[in-house]
Specification:
By secondary structure, the chain is an alpha+beta fold. It has 3 helices and 2 strands. A two-stranded parallel sheet has the order 1-2. The termini are far apart. The mean pLDDT is 87. Keywords: Glycosyltransferase, Starch biosynthesis, Transferase. Pathway: Glycan biosynthesis; starch biosynthesis.
Amino acid sequence: MKAGILESDRVFTVSPHYAEELVSGEDRGVELDNIIRSTGITGM
């Protein structure tokens, strides 16, 4: 998954709330938050 995120232009999620959760930090269970944040994320 990390390689796919790094090769993408932007990450899209199913909702704005889920996008916020993904970049909220490791304490929420997402360990790729810093990579996703640097790539960019959009909740649709």
